[in-house]
Amino acid sequence: MPTYDEIAQMIDHSLLKPELDEAATRAGCELALRYGVASVCVKPCFVPLAARILAGSPVAVGTVVGFPHGAHTTTVKRFEAEDACRCGAVELDMVVNIGWVLGEDWDRVAADILEVNQTAHDHGAILKVIFENCYLQDSHKIRLCRMCGEIGVDFIKTSTGFGSGGATENDVRLMRQYAPPQVLIKAAGGIRTLDAAIRMRELGCSRIGATATAAILDELRRRG
User: Are the beta carbons of 65 and 95 closer than 8 angstroms?
Assistant: First the structure.
């Protein structure tokens, strides 16, 4: 059985639902502090709020770029990344341009990722590239794994949690197989139990996106 800290430090507590207001976001950040998770992932408008609440704590502030469809222009994604970092974000989860991936317009896909990755790193932030695997074929996922390795992103991520499907064991296995070892894996979408979190860890995930943070970690304490 993993330790409490091993599971808690995998969790990016997700606060991205459209209906979450400032009070709910504040409560989510406070929950993340109490449970000692790796980070929160808040909507861009709430990055300054999260940065204030979490200042001086080990919980990192994260947000999203090009969310949830990845169809923003690269210029807009770069601006989103810069603005988020200036407001206090240190982790960015960016959605690839799904249409370009499906059209196999790989030069534009790579340029899009490269620009945001450079912006993140220039500001001392890390970048997680979201594939949204539910819409892709394995050949697309493999190409993205290799591309992200060549570009030097920090993480690749299965899903936004807002597509037609979330993280699957097969996708995580494939991503771990084809991404270089230095590129870490984040699974998101549908991970609501301790057993699911443990399974993703066994498959090679370093992070998971979760809204069920309290349920997962409370169950771990009960079993402990």
Answer: yes
In this prediction, residues 147-153 reach a mean pLDDT of 98
- Whether 157 sits among the annotated catalytic residues: the reply is yes
Give the gyration radius of the chain's Cα atoms.
Answer: 16
What CATH number should be reported for the domain holding residue 170?
3.20.20.70
Tell me the pLDDT band of 14, cut-offs 50, 70 and 90.
Answer: very high
Q: What pTM was computed for the model? A: 0.97
| Residue 65, both tokens | 């770029």
Q: Spot the catalytic one: 12, 93, 112, 171.
A: 93
Residues 6+ apart with CB under 8 A from 47: 61, 63, 84, 87, 88, 89
Residue range 106-127: average pLDDT?
98
Q: What is the pLDDT of residue 92?
A: 99
128 catalytically annotated: no
Instruction: Please pick, among 12, 128, 157, 171, the residue that the annotation labels catalytic.
Output: 157
Please give the full DSSP string across 125-154, using - where no structure is assigned: -EEEEE--GGG--HHHHHHHHHHHHHHT-S
* Structural domains of the chain, count: 1
Query: Which residues constitute the domain of residue 84?
Result: 4-223
Catalytic residue among 77, 128, 141, 186: 186
pLDDT tens, residue by residue, 121-140: 999 999 999 999 999 999 99
Whether 77 is catalytic is no
